[in-house]
Specification:
six-stranded mixed β-sheet; 13% strand; alpha+beta; 251 residues; 6 helices; DNA polymerase, domain 1
Length: 251
């Protein structure tokens, strides 16, 4: 997980760099932009990667080859150089960072991610979409449910680096302007929550169910939401909320 300070400070605790004399060359090594790798340089690399992807039609993921990586890190297929910066590596070579384009709630975002970062972490930390809750962080409670290409998934068990090019919807993406979605409104009207921590996951799972089956019976609702745990045991009201949402959409 990212340290909270990292969100606001590019290089916390680092002393100021002495001024470079005229004609002096910058030190080599470190990140792909020269010198130690910092969050600021990653962001710069992300912008350049977007340009590279548009120019060569690389798809959704571009590795930053200058960073190296472990033997078990996934590889990418494209090597491209922009302004002297290598934004990819040949197939078969691992990377420790990659620039991935995630389509979240209808908007494209170019993000720098590591091979082991979960989609839930990237949504919360890098995009600030904290409606997606991390409960167990092991795909047992489904509080982190999001919809990917119309299918509900536990985002704590999805690797962000693999989700490029897919359509991702979070709880924040259900509202239409200032209006709640039918399912959100039904949960509000029927008190389908207590502490509310599991509620975003319950709503996302119910939304996916009703899109596939607009008129489910109670057994179908129970089966679809069986993986979404509620520690407050608000299950009767959750079932009532989903039934009400189905009736509202039908009527």
């Amino acid at each position: 997980m990212a340290n909270g300070n990292d969100l606001f400070d590019d290089e916390p605790g680092k002393p100021e760099k002495p001024a470079r004399r005229q004609g002096q060359r910058p030190a080599e090594g470190g990140g792909p932009l020269g010198g130690p790798l910092t969050r600021r340089k990653f962001l710069a690399g992300a912008g350049a990667a977007a340009a590279a992807g548009a120019a060569v039609g690389t798809g959704a993921t571009i590795g930053i080859g200058a960073l190296g990586g472990g033997d078990d890190a996934p590889a990418v297929d494209v090597a491209e150089e922009v302004d002297g910066i290598t934004l990819g590596v040949p197939a078969g070579r691992p990377v420790s960072q990659a620039v991935v384009k995630l389509n979240v709630n209808g908007r494209d975002h170019w993000l720098t991610v590591t091979p082991n970062q979960s989609l839930a972490e990237v949504l919360r930390v890098q995009l600030g979409l904290t409606g997606t809750k991390i409960g167990c962080d092991r795909s047992e409670c489904s509080a982190c449910t999001v919809i990917v290409d119309d299918v509900p998934h536990n985002s704590c068990s999805l690797l962000a680096i693999r989700e490029g090019g897919k359509k991702i919807v979070t709880i924040e993406g259900l509202e239409q302007g200032t209006e709640l979605s039918t399912v959100q409104q039904a949960f509000l009207d029927n008190m389908g929550l207590q502490c509310g921590f599991c509620t975003p996951g319950q709503i996302m799972q119910a939304t996916a169910l009703l899109k596939q089956n607009p008129n489910p019976d109670e057994a179908t609702i129970r089966r679809a939401l069986s993986g979404n745990l509620c520690k407050c045991a608000a299950y009767p009201n959750i079932l009532a909320s989903v039934r009400a949402a189905a009736e509202s959409a039908a009527g």
